[in-house]
Structures are given as C-alpha cells and as structure tokens.
Amino acid sequence: MEVDSADSRHAAVLKRKATDSINEILSFGQSSSSSQKRTKKTPLHKIRDVEAYKKIIKTYKAPTWFGCAVSPRDLADYGWECVKKDCVKCVECEELLCTSLPNICKVSFNVYNSRLQEIHDQLSSAHRSTCKLRTGAPPIRFTEPTSKEIMSGIQSRLSDSKSIEDDDFVVHIPSDVNLPKLEGISDQLMYVAALGWHVTKPRRGTLMFGCDYCARELAIRCGNSFDPIHKHERWCPRIDMDEHGEPSWQSDISIVLNTKNRVSHRYSGSSIFKEAYAARRLIDSSLSTIISPNLL
User: Could you state a single Gene Ontology molecular function term (predicted)?
Assistant: First the structure.
C-alpha cells in the first residue's frame, strides 16, 4: 500500500509538471499572459504619464525641430522637450542637451556614429543626478487598457468629426480587421480613430488628421485617400508591435471586441498548438485513471 501511495504521489507530481509545461506552451500565443509577465517585471511605482509624453512630443515640430537620427520618442522618454534648433531641455531639472550631429557627407561613418552614441548616452547622464527622469520612462503600454478606456479614447478623437461625410476621404480597411460599432460613425472614421488619429474639418473641402502620440498633422483635400498606418511617424507608439507581431491598435480592437484572450488565428492552426492540445488530452485521459482527484 505504501508503494502504491508513493507511486500515486509521484505520478501526481509528474502530471502537474507536464500540465504546467503544456499550459506555458499554449499561452505563448496569448498576449494577455505575456502582458501579465511584463507587468510583474515593471516596478509598480513607475507608471507612465502618457499625457506628459503627449505634451512633450508636441514640441518636436518645425521650425525648432527638422528631424534627426535621434528619435523624438527616445528624447521624450527621458523628459527632453525641444526648445530650439539642436537643443532640448529637461522638463524636470531644466538641464540642456545639444542634439546636433555632424554632416554625414563630410565626416566618416565612425565619427557620425560616435556622436550619435554620445547623444544616446547623454539622454540619461545629462540630467542632474537628482532628476527623477534620469532613469527614463516605462513603456507606453505599461498594462493593457480596458475596453472602456479604449472606447473613451476613440470617442474623444471622434468628437469633432460629426460634420465629416463618408465620401470626404477614402481609406483602405483590411478585410481581416473587425471594428467596433458606434451609432452614426462610419467604419472609415472608426478605423482611423482606432489608429490614433483625430479628424476635423476646419474648412470646406479640407480635412485635418492629427496624432497625439507622434505629433503628426496632415491636411488633405476632401475626396482624397488617407493611409492611417504609414502616415504615422516610424517611431509612433500606435504602430508598435508586441512580441507576436500584433500592433497596439489591433490589440486595442481585440480587447473591445472581447477577443483578446482567445488564441490568435495565427497560432491556433500551427503544429505546436495541435501537438500541445493533443498532449494535454492524452495526459488527462491516461493519468486520470491512476491518480485520485484528491491528489491533484
């Protein structure tokens, strides 16, 4: 009897370990589990102030900013706002940082890259030693937003779009994208708002598109096409992708449509998931016959 009891306990341990391993494999395609892991690794006291980021990023516009190999997003992450050409200032300690780069046509790549690396190092070191922004900011998506928060953001971006007609602009919506519905809002407007654009019609025949995350502002004539993905700056957080290749705007739509916790169709048909599910069924059907429920 003691031998049987020991064997049963040993089998129970093996089943737990096997089940945990399989669950880990199955959760690979589910971003909800990965977000929980990221949340645990991120200190709780470092919650990103997104509104402060938006305020800083709006300072990177002409005529004070003409583009640079240093991303405005990297600068904003460390609290640097643009005050004049090739010069940024910390919003907290008010230290200044020069962002000028040598003319790449007149110097070697080594010299150019050395100066670029120096600027990146100074994003942290140029702050005062007591500045709280010296360590940088946590990711924009510290945790996944709720469905209510996402829809609130979309509605705020659509607040000035009531006068916009369906034929005022043309946008291509991928066939595999499902969009939430709002009364009186077309799929075109919903799509661009989900991608972070607010749309206004300042005067007849003209539409204005703006993104608070990359400070991009574009004007188009009514009737023209608009690409809400490629018109973002390349570093815009709205088109960031997670470890599974899913952009943040698509993740938001999935949360609203309550499909976020389902296994993505990109993974559900893969061989690794089929094998994992088959292995778990095999364990459940085989070991359950020799392990009593009170041991699990």
Answer: zinc ion binding
95 touches 134 (CB < 8 A): no
Strand partners, 266: none
Residue 70 DSSP label? S
Residue 102, token pair as written in the block: 């040598």
Helix/strand/coil for 130: coil
Distance of CA 260 to the CA centre of its chain: 14
What average pLDDT does range 241-267 have in this prediction? 73
Cα(130)–Cα(278) distance, integer angstroms: 56
pTM score of the predicted model: 0.65
Sheet holding 197-203, edge to edge: 197-203, 206-211, 217-221
Give the confidence band of 93 by pLDDT, cuts at 50, 70, 90: very high
Q: Closest by alpha carbon to 77, among 130, 142, 150?
A: 142
Residues in the chain, total: 296
Residue 220: both structure tokens together: 């188009």
Q: What whole-number distance in Å separates Cα of residue 32 and Cα of residue 37?
A: 9
Do 87 and 96 meet the contact criterion of CB atoms below 8 Å apart? Answer: yes
Cα distances (angstroms) measured from residue 98 to each of 13, 76, 83, 104, 180 = 60, 14, 11, 17, 45
Burial of 122 (0-12, 13-18, 19+ CB in 10 A): middle
Within 10 Å of residue 20's Cβ, how many Cβ atoms? 10
Q: What is the pLDDT of residues 41-69, one digit of tens each?
A: 444 345 668 888 999 999 998 888 877 78
